[in-house]
Structures are given as C-alpha cells and as structure tokens.
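Bug #77: duplicate submission created two jobs. Keeping one. Sequence:
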Amino acid sequence: MPRVPVHTRAVFFDAVGTLLFPEPSAPTVYADVAQRYGLQLAPSDVRSRFITAYRVEEAADVATQWVTSEEREHERWHRIVTQTLTGVSDPEACYRDLFDHFARPAAWRVAPDATEVFAALQSRGLVLGMGSNYDARLWLVLAGFPELAALADRVVISAAVGVRKPGTGFFQTVARIANCEPNEVLFVGDDLNNDYVGATTARMHAILLDPRGDHTHIPHRITKLSELLT
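Kept job's structure:
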C-alpha cells in the first residue's frame, strides 16, 4: 500500500514533534531558566514534573471538549510552567521567559528531511499545510524558517480555530482550508491520540510518525518523514 493514498489531494503535517523540534530540548531549557530563578532541577526531573502538569491540563481540555482560544492557551501554559517549576523565586517572570523563548525561531530546528519531502509531494500536485495545537507564537516561529514556506498558506492553529486536536472540529477546519473532502486529506503527526486517532475519527487518512517504534500496532506509521515517499 502506498504511503500516500492514491486519491489524496492534500497532506497536512503536525508542527511540534513532527516538523519542529526544540533545540535544546524543552526539559533542558526549563532547567536552565529555573536555575536563573534559584531552582536547581535536572532535566529528567523537569520532564517528570512537566508530564504531571501537562496531564492535568489535558484532562481539563477533555472536560470542555477541547475548546480553546489564545486566552486559554496562555492560561494553560501558565499553569503548566508554574506547576512544573514550583519553587522558583519569581514564577511570573520565569513563565514569561519560557513563553517568549518558544516564540523564537532560534529555539527550534526543522526536521532534516522536510524540504525534500515537501518538494516531492508538491511535484505530485498535492496541496500542503500544517495543523498544530499551538497559539499565535507559531507564526513567529514559521517566519524564521523559509524551508517551511510551502505550508505557510495553509496553517491551522488550534487557538485560532477554537478547538484543539483531537477535536473533530479542528480537522473539519483542516479539510475546509485544504478545500477537500476529509477522506482526501492525509494528516501526518507524531501524537497517537491528537494526530492519528483525531484525524481518522474525522474520516481523514493518517500516518503516525513513530521514530522510536513505540506504536508498532499501528499499521500506518513511519519512522522518518522521508518514508512518506517510499
């Protein structure tokens, strides 16, 4: 079976964890910023705290059926950061430093095979786009990466849409922006629930980016983006 189904007209990619990666890693950045505010934490401890705080906010989003906004995303990240870095001398300043950090292109790197994949898919006449659980900061990040310009005309951001992945409303917006029926869109992402399950529930095709082989039970998965072209 081809990686990209023959009737596909559009391919949309998740952002963080699929095309964009924090550099250095998020736990390292959090630990460095925390140290500036008097809290010594190893990146591994940051990661453990972060996961706990993140899951609390995920549960809150489930309860509201994934409704979001710019205000909600600011609130969400404020809670995640302050809970993760409990003990810093100035929680508000620490939060602002981290929130602003991840709005900068210099905080990120792009998947090395992204440019090759975009060019090959466009040569097949496919429409390309991006669908992300992020906020307006994503526009600032994208502006710093000309290699992502192929997607810039069709970027769907949850805070602007009003619903986060895996909410069906998010993927309905993706189909509308792509000017396609849902079953003509292929969604590629690294999160099993948000990207793969969310897209398939919305009647899209989906491929899971699974570089570590954590989800071998998923039939449609790749370990790197370039495998879309095989």
